[in-house]
Amino acid sequence: MKHPIKFTTPEEAVKVIKSGDHVHLSSVASVPQVLVCAMAERGKAGELHDVKIHHLHTEGDAMYAVPEMEGVFQLDSFFVGGNVRKVTQAGFADYIPVFLSETQRLYRDGTLPCDVAMIQVSPPDRHGYVSLGTSVDATLAAVECAKTVIAVVNRYVPRSFGDSFIHMSKIDIFVENDTPLIEEHFAEPNEVEKAIGRNCASLIEDGACLQMGIGSIPNAVLSQLTGHKNLGVHTEMFADGVLPLVESGVINGANKKINRGKIVSTFLMGSQKVYDFIDDNPGVLMKDVGYTNDPFIISQNPKVTALNSALQVDLTGQICADSLGTKFYSGVGGQVDFIYGASRSEGGRAIVAMPSITNKGISKIVPVLNEGAGVVTTRAHVHWIVTEHGVVNLYGKSMQERARLLISIADPSARESLDRAAFERFGSHHYYIKNSCGM
Hints:
The chain is of the alpha/beta class. The protein has two domains: 7-176, Glutaconate Coenzyme A-transferase (3-Layer(aba) Sandwich), CATH 3.40.1080.10; 191-433, Glutaconate Coenzyme A-transferase (3-Layer(aba) Sandwich). A hairpin with a 4-residue loop joins strand 19 (312-314) and strand 20. Helix 6 packs across helix 7. It is globular and about 70 Å long.
């Protein structure tokens, strides 16, 4: 059965947007770029004002967030990606702190209105269903709640399984544009990242269910797992690094209790190879973010091993992951969702991994977080911390014990000053005696 579509132009489609509307954009590689361009042109022409834009991390030019669009568009993102970081830090855009698991809830419970959802989908199948492809996340909720849904039908969008299918009848306006999805090619890990990868891999057991993001450190970890058996994946995102382990049978999901044998994610970003991998692949489930990132869903699988990162860690174990002092750098994301979920999992391990120092030689393990820095993961949530210098577990440890453990994996150039700061902070002769004894 064929389902003919009446297409319109991007310029005609975005005429539905009115001043004061809230507009959701699908995320990461699935941003409907032709609609963004057409919407921005309306803004330049003076046809719109006070249009609020919402999205997770996006790729490509965010032309609605440039200073020249102040008063026309207001970006209130759920995550500060690299393409909007400078304008957010400069005050031309803003950020809504929210657990990734609850981004969908902002729409579903009416906290945020959604007047227009602008999405990108695969061509319809013979039953009239299109797929959200690489990004389900909060976009499915936006589609459910939006007054108007505009969809770019793009043959390069993979037909993914899970919660990604939408019937054509749920879409109000169709635009056709066959532009390849934006790809991300990650650099090979450097020596520090390889050392972090080895240290993280030492914590991953056979049969573990993995959550890890995208980038050099996750790829470095994955490259160390070729000798493992029966690994699973339940994550919020993945990239090319998992593919060799799937092809070799290391990742097979055999030990999972829910979605056994399936890779579960809510969005992904990588090369065309990973987009091809999920196309028509029933072994990959692209699920609603309210499912993938629900700690009580996550914890149902055994040996959940969650790998996240940090910008700073203080000597008590507080994790700053979203800001550099008062400047927002990224977002809360799914870190707390997965750290809590992994810690509740039978045999689970929650890991925060990072280089011990920045590219400028500044220690990332600090006496206190920078003024204005936000605590994403509390000292009560934290478990394993990994740097290139080692692995420590802070769970169940006192403040003084935590300080000693963290100093042991700090960069050697920072250890003396950290030790002095710890002694001054805790004001304890007991700390000094235990530290000098190597306890």
